[in-house]
Amino acid sequence: MICVLLDKFQGLQNLVGKCDIRSVIVSLSDSIGDFLTRIRNAQLAMHRETRVLFSKVNSSILKILKEEGYILNYKKQESDSVPSLVVQLKYYDKSPVINDIARVSKPGCRYYSKCKDISKAYNGLGIFIISTPKGVMTDYNARRLKVGGEVLCRVF
Q1: Were 88 and a residue from 1, 37, 72, 76 both cysteine, which residue would form a disulfide, CB within 3.0 to 4.6 Å?
Q2: Which among 97, 32, 126 is positioned nearest to 140, based on CA atoms?
Q3: Which residues lie in coiled coils (predicted)?
Q4: CATH code for the structural domain at 1-91
Q5: Is the distance from CB of 64 to CB of 131 less than 8 angstroms?
Q6: Dihedral sign computed on CA atoms, order 42, 25, 154, 51
Q7: In the prediction, which pLDDT does 12 show?
Q8: Helices 56-67 & 31-44, crossing angle to 10 degrees?
Q9: Residue 50 and residue 88: Cα distance in Å, rounded?
Q10: Under a CB-based contact definition with an 8 Å cutoff, are residues 36 and 69 in contact?
Q11: What pLDDT is stored for residue 60 in this prediction?
């Protein structure tokens, strides 16, 4: 996926630097991995919000994170030519609510699970986010609906 990313994205400001270039072309082979890394880094840096690239999968993951109470809110922002999602991060007693967010199924090593093989993340304290034929959902909902799929990430 080749995207034109404007210098408004914090991670690319160093690439743009002092040049008059207003856009940078970047190839992303793992947009979900980039999305999770942006959230993880923003939480570690204690940012109130962060921007991630818009995609239907990213939007579905954010919907689940909001429903489960891991983030405050998110909204789609279409400024300039690149649609993005602005994520408002959540903290409790000045520490991030998301302790760990990691990719499980990777482009080089996909991880699929049957409904009966889906385990509880961190003994039920965290969640797995799974892409199923019925949509993106938590491990609890996948077991309840008896559907398996690709395990995208784990959140604790």
Answers
A1: 72
A2: 126
A3: none
A4: 3.30.1370.30
A5: no
A6: positive
A7: 52
A8: 40
A9: 7
A10: no
A11: 98
Sign of CA dihedral 63, 102, 94, 41: negative
**What is the per-residue pLDDT for 82?**
86
- Amino acid identity for residue 105 in this structure: S
Can you give the pLDDT at residue 10?
Answer: 55
The secondary structure of the chain, three-state, reads CEEEEECCCHHHHHHHCCCCCCEEEEECCCHHHHHHHHHHHHHHCCCCEEEEECCHHHHHHHHHHHHCCCEEEEEEECCCCCCEEEEEECEECCEECCCCEEECCECCECCEECHHHCCCHHHHCCEEEEEECCEEEEHHHHHHHCCCEEEEEEEC
Q: What is the distance between the terminal CA atoms of the chain, rounded to a whole angstrom?
A: 29
Q: What tokens were used for 10? A: 């914090």
In single-letter form, the type of residue at position 42 comes to: A
Name the fold adopted by 99-156. Answer: Dna Ligase; domain 1 (3.30.1490)
What ranges do the domains of the chain cover? 1-91, 99-156
pLDDT at 21: 47
Across the chain, which has 156 residues, the per-10-residue mean pLDDT values are: 46 52 64 97 97 96 98 91 94 96 96 95 95 98 98 98
